[in-house]
Amino acid sequence: MFNINKIKMAKKEKTAITIDDKEYFYEDLTQEQQTIVNHISDLQRKIQSSEFNLQQLSFGKDAFVKALKETLVDE
Fold first, then answer.
1. What tens digit of pLDDT does each residue of 26-39 get?
2. Taking residues 53-60, what's their average pLDDT?
3. I need a surface site. Which of 4, 41, 45, 74 has the fewest CB within 10 A?
4. What is the C-alpha to C-alpha distance for residues 6 and 41, in angstroms, rounded to an integer?
5. Three-class DSSP category at 23
């Protein structure tokens, strides 16, 4: 499990990252760890976008199959 949340701490905002129920702060990570977190976040966005696109494509395909069936019935 991987989750990112912004937390305000005494005038400073820190980004909490939860991995396997353990919380870390992005600002306290090394540069390498921050880069890895950025990759994970980017990949999560890409996966969500791909799932959304797949949903649209599937719906569109189904609509065309339905339209084709309707034209075949009329013949």
1. 999 999 999 999 99
2. 98
3. 74
4. 14
5. strand
Residue for token digits 């339905």? 66
Amino acid at 44: Q
Distance CA 16, CA 29 (A): 11
Direct distance between the N- and C-terminal alpha carbons of the chain, in angstroms, rounded to an integer: 54
**Nearest 10 degrees: Cα torsion 44, 49, 53, 54:** 10
Structure tokens at 75: 């013949």
Bigger pLDDT: 10 vs 28: 28
Q: pTM for the complete prediction?
A: 0.71
Distance of alpha carbon 69 from alpha carbon 2, whole angstroms: 44
